[in-house]
Specification:
By secondary structure, this protein is mainly alpha-helical. It is built from 20 helices and no strands. Helix 5 runs antiparallel to helix 8.
Length: 468
């Protein structure tokens, strides 16, 4: 039995519970490790530069989110499409998708890098940087932008490793980069005293190593064996392939792009109603939230090829089992995160800041903000996993709507309206209000879709993907 048949049999026949564990645990570890790129930077910067350094990194977060959005557009869109094609037994089409995705990632990331460097100062001011934070943010983000192509390739192409049924290699990619980032952070910040520039330099070097690792896997370099091969003949861009990638990848892209816009609005609201202390506090809150949500994204990445393959193979009972298992796991994690953040917020903040770095003021503002901002955390896991179900099954319009409902349609109006009446408290409360309404909307869509799953011919066999 060849590699393709072996992995196809695994995705289509192995016990769903075991498959979820096999795919999700490496993905969870990988996503947690990936989160350390930013979190370790903030911890080391908080301990060396101080709270203003954390605020500077958070002000630049919209830029990083934009870069990640385009990586997700191509990486996750291409992976979803490739997984379905593999489920249909069309390996050559899957390799064509991989080649087009590789070129598309390069073109987009280089373009974003150049534009970002040209407009970096006005862009950061637009995203809420105060006069005191701006120089620190420019020092950090200018280097991050130079490394944008490494980030795009490392994340985007790594999605295909997981999609072809090799999650351990995908996890290894993230582990290599994150461990190197931690080591270099310490060297550049504490030994060479490079501050903000050292943290950024450590990040892009680690991302470059990860990108090289991923590319070598699909080129067949070394002992690792990939099912799909990166070949020059598949790197000529095709309109139909690009359209299919963008169609499916639009949901996570729009959510991530929306997150960038929301963060910019959030930064300006924090600056208006709470100043630099509120901005720095939100930098810590965001890091804590990332640690909680990254396992959920890992579960999504683990469940996606299982759901996509079995949906393509019309094994709808397995689709439902995978979805149910992912929801239960995600809800368990978010509930545990809720308990920790509500009972010990001060201890979490102390990880990031020294006693002498305006810690008392930040603790008073930040711990209250943490408790309010994550008040609806237990239901967030359900919302994220369920939105991903629509993406994995080739229904990008529904996935985009549900993702945008939480990130844009509800959250942005809440961020604009609530602070006018409740000040800084309104800024903190906008998140849980959005989480609750979006979760209810997602539940309605999901119940309706599952009720009719398999009762009509909702898979377009010989096209990229059709919207039901």
């Amino acid at each position: 039995m060849n590699v393709q048949d072996d992995r196809s049999k695994m995705l289509g026949e192995e016990d769903i519970g075991k498959l979820l564990l096999k795919f999700s645990i490496p993905a969870i570890v990988g996503m947690l490790v990936n989160a350390l790129y930013n979190i370790v930077d903030r911890i080391f910067i908080g301990q060396s530069v101080g709270s203003i350094g954390i605020g500077a990194i958070f002000v630049g977060a919209p830029v990083s989110l934009i870069l990640m959005a385009f990586s997700m557009l191509v990486g996750i869109g291409g992976n979803s499409l490739s997984s379905i094609r593999l489920g249909q037994g069309k390996k050559e089409e899957a390799e064509l998708i991989l080649g087009n995705a590789f070129v598309l990632l390069l073109i987009i990331s280089i373009s974003l890098s150049v534009l970002g460097l040209i407009f970096i100062e006005p862009m950061l001011k637009l995203f809420g940087a105060s006069d005191s934070i701006l120089p620190y943010s420019i020092a950090y983000m200018s280097i991050i932008l130079i490394g944008a192509p490494f980030q795009a390739l490392g994340f985007g192409i790594n999605s295909f490793i997981r999609g072809e049924g090799n999650p351990n290699v995908a996890m290894g990619t993230m582990l290599i980069g994150a461990i190197l980032n931690i080591v270099l952070d310490y060297v550049f910040i504490f030994i060479f005293n490079m501050g903000m520039k050292g943290a950024a330099l450590a990040t892009i070097i680690a991302q470059a190593v990860s990108a090289i690792w991923v590319i070598s896997y699909f080129l067949g370099i070394g002992k690792r064996s990939s099912m799909l091969k990166l070949q020059r003949k598949n790197m000529r861009l095709r309109k139909d392939i690009i359209k299919g990638i963008i169609s499916i990848g639009f949901a996570p892209f729009s959510m991530q792009l929306a997150a960038s816009m929301v963060t910019a609005i959030l930064n300006n609201a924090l600056n208006t109603y709470g100043g630099d202390v509120a901005l720095s506090s939100m930098g810590v809150i965001h890091s804590i939230t990332m640690l909680i949500l990254m396992p959920i994204f890992g579960i999504n990445h683990g469940a996606q090829p299982i759901i996509g393959f079995n949906y393509g193979a019309e094994k709808y009972d397995r689709v439902k089992k995978a979805l149910r298992g992912a929801i239960i796991a995600a809800t368990t994690i978010t509930t545990l995160g809720f308990i920790i953040t509500q009972t010990m917020p001060d201890k979490l903040f102390n990880i990031f800041l020294e006693k002498g770095s305006d810690i008392e003021n930040i603790l008073a503002v930040g711990t209250r903000g943490l408790r309010i901002n994550l008040a609806m955390l237990p239901i967030v896991g359900f919302q994220i996993v369920s939105s991903n179900y629509f993406q994995a099954t080739g229904k990008p319009k529904k996935a985009a709507l549900l993702g945008l409902s939480r990130q844009v349609l509800i959250l942005i109006p809440a961020l604009i309206i609530l602070p006018k009446f409740f000040g800084l408290t309104g800024v903190w409360a906008a998140g849980p209000v959005s989480d609750f309404v979006a979760s209810m909307l997602t539940a309605i869509f999901l119940i309706k879709d599952l009720r009719y799953l398999g009762e009509e011919d909702n898979i377009v066999k010989n096209k990229i993907i059709g919207e039901r």
